[in-house]
C-alpha cells in the first residue's frame, strides 16, 4: 500500500522529507504547499549545497512540479484549512513550516481532508512526540503527532538505553548545532541573537527532554 503524503513548508526540512520519500517505493509525495513559486521550489530541490544534486529529474509544467515524470500539485495557501488535501488523496501531511505546532493549528490539515499529521518539530502543547528507537511502541494511533527536535532524535535513543539499564536521575547535554535560518549572516543588532553567525557561538536552551515527560 502506497502512503500519499502532502508537505506543508518546502524549506530545509520539507525538502529533506521529499528526498527521503523518493527513496521509498511505499511513499508518494502528491502535493506541496509553500509561498515560494514553483520554479524556485524546483531549483531548490535540484541543487542542495549540503546534500548535493537531486538524483532524478525535476521540472515545472502548468504550475505543477514534475519529479521523475510524476505530477505533484503545488499550492501557496497561508491557511492549512484551505489546502483541500482530500482532492489529491493525502493520507499524511508533513507539517514542516515550523508554525503550526499545536493540535489546534495542525488539525486544520485534518479539516482540509488529510487523515494524519506529523509535525517535523517539537510540539508547543501536549501533542505527543515520538522518536525512533525511543518510544515508537507508545504510539496508539493518534492522528496528530510530533517527531520532536533534531537534538532530541540524537539524544533520546542513547538516553533510553542508559535509563533502561541503569537509570537516569538527572542529566545535562551540550550540543554543537548547525547554523539555522534564525541566525543572521551579518551582525544585525547588539544582542547575542543578532551576532554574525559565522563569527560567534550562540548559547541557548532547548526543550529536548520534553519528550521524556510525555
TrEMBL record:
Annotated signal peptide: none
A Pfam family the protein falls into: Gp_dh_N
GO molecular function, one term: glyceraldehyde-3-phosphate dehydrogenase (NAD+) (phosphorylating) activity
EC number: 1.2.1.12
PROSITE patterns linked: GAPDH
Residues covered by the Glyceraldehyde 3-phosphate dehydrogenase NAD(P) binding domain: 3-150
CDD domains in alphabetical order: GAPDH_I_N (cd05214)
Assembly and binders: Homotetramer.
Protein family (similarity comment): Belongs to the glyceraldehyde-3-phosphate dehydrogenase family.
Record-given protein name: Glyceraldehyde-3-phosphate dehydrogenase
Species assigned in the record: Salmonella enterica I
Amino acid at each position: 500500500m502506497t502512503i500519499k503524503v502532502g508537505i506543508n513548508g518546502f524549506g530545509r526540512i520539507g525538502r529533506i522529507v521529499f528526498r527521503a520519500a523518493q527513496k521509498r517505493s511505499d511513499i508518494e509525495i502528491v502535493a506541496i504547499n509553500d509561498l515560494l513559486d514553483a520554479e524556485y521550489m524546483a531549483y531548490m530541490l535540484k541543487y542542495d549545497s549540503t546534500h548535493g544534486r537531486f538524483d532524478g529529474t525535476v521540472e515545472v509544467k502548468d504550475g505543477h512540479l514534475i519529479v521523475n515524470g510524476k505530477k505533484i500539485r503545488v499550492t501557496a495557501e497561508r491557511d492549512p484549512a484551505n489546502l483541500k488535501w482530500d482532492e489529491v488523496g493525502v493520507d499524511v501531511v508533513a507539517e514542516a513550516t515550523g508554525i503550526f505546532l499545536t493540535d489546534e493549528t495542525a488539525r486544520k490539515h485534518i479539516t482540509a481532508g488529510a487523515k494524519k499529521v506529523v509535525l517535523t518539530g517539537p510540539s508547543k502543547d501536549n501533542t505527543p512526540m515520538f522518536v525512533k528507537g525511543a518510544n515508537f511502541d507508545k504510539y496508539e494511533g493518534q492522528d496528530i503527532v510530533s517527531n520532536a527536535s533534531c537534538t532530541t532524535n540524537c539524544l533520546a535513543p542513547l538516553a533510553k538505553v542508559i535509563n533502561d539499564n541503569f537509570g537516569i536521575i538527572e542529566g545535562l547535554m551540550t550540543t554543537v548545532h548547525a547554523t539555522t535560518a534564525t541566525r543572521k549572516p551579518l551582525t544585525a543588532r547588539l544582542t547575542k541573537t543578532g551576532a554574525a553567525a559565522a563569527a560567534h557561538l550562540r548559547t541557548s536552551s532547548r526543550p529536548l527532554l520534553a519528550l521524556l515527560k510525555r
